[in-house]
Amino acid sequence: MSDNRYKAVSVLLVEDDDIDAMGVQRAFKKLRVANPICRARDGIEGLQMLRDGTAAHPRLILLDLNMPRMSGLEMLKEVRDDPTLTDSVIFVLTTSKDDEDKAAAYKEHIAGYIVKSSLDNGFDDFMKLLDHYWRLVEFPVREK
Question: Domain count of the chain?
Answer without folding.
Answer: 1
